[in-house]
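User: My instructor asked us to take a sequence, write out its structure as tokens, and then describe one feature of it. I'm not sure where to start. Here is the sequence I was given:
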Amino acid sequence: MGTQLPLPGYWPRNATWSDPRDELKQLECDKLNAKVEIRDVLERYARHHGVELDEVTRLVRGYVDDLVNDLFFEKEDEIRDGIIERDDDADGGP
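Assistant: Let's start with the prediction itself. The structure tokens for your sequence are:
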């Protein structure tokens, strides 16, 4: 009769190893949704206070795009590194 090895700990059995490409797609979608939500709020207050909607558009294209991109820059970079690493492993690279 052979020896039965113990099962691995809780986390390895229940860990989910997501594809970094899927994570990146989700992050891009979330960034877009954040920009839409911010724009909606700005438009609502602009209408309430009589500010031109063109001004909201200008600010969203400038400040809000930069704000959201800056907020997620490090996470996006980390995910892209994961994609490169996974591709290198698949290709048998360094």
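For the description part of your assignment, you could build on this observation: The mean pLDDT is 87. Try explaining in your own words what that tells you about the chain.
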